[in-house]
Amino acid sequence: MDLLSSILNSMDKPPSASDGQKELMKKQREAMLRRQNEEKQKFSKFRKSVEEKVNKFQQNMEEKRLKFEPMDQVFRGIIHDVAEIAGMTAYSFGEEGYDRYTMVYKKDFPPSEDEIATLRNGEEWTEEKAKEIAHKRKLEKDDAEEFAKKPDKIVPKSNYQEKYQHLIGTEVAKDAARVTQTNKSYGFVPSENKKDVRSIEQTLADIKSKKRQKLEHQSQGENS
């Protein structure tokens, strides 16, 4: 066999492992399987404890919510799954990795938007907090209703014609009231009075005439 064939044959064969390496690989594989089995048992045990708590909570007619202590996301996921199967709703609140916990609610007693907002803000939801928010809602509603009752226009307290009819008479008061009615486009001056019907040529001629008269008047004053 030549040198090239010898090299190619040696490349086709995988490198052989020693007995020590084989034993180490076997131990690593056994340790990984053992950890996986331990985690599986741990999750199974936790799920069983959650199911027991949820069932006991469901049978208690006085309790409306069930709070679990802060835990990792994988465990919170188990709580959410158990709650959904039991026909309940679950919400998680708090900061991830610090104090995030899960709250389970019965189907007949879902949380209000105010409660969810309060818990998400890191505050505790109590009866006192609920009363405080309800009182604030009532004040806002009363303010809105009071604002809606305000008239859009200001109504004068006295009538113009009645107030001055002893001075100018009833008919004159009426005429005066008609004259002082606001014109929508030009205020109190009629729009016809503001129109200039002169042409441009006539306007320029009038301006020149006024200037000429002014100059002649000044010249006569100086000569006198």
UniProtKB/TrEMBL annotation:
Output the InterPro entries linked to this UniProt entry.
R3H_dom (IPR001374), R3H_dom_sf (IPR036867), SPAG7 (IPR017330)
Cite the residue spans of the region called Disordered: 1-45
Q: Which domain of life is it from?
A: Eukaryota
From the UniProt record, list the coiled-coil ranges. none
| Compositional bias (Basic and acidic residues) | 20-45
GO: which molecular function terms?
nucleic acid binding
| Family annotation (Gene3D superfamilies) | R3H-like domain
Q: Known Pfam families for this protein?
A: R3H
User: Locate the R3H domain: which residues?
Assistant: 44-107
Name this protein carries in UniProt? R3H domain-containing protein
The taxonomic lineage of its organism, from the top, reads: Eukaryota, Metazoa, Ecdysozoa, Arthropoda, Hexapoda
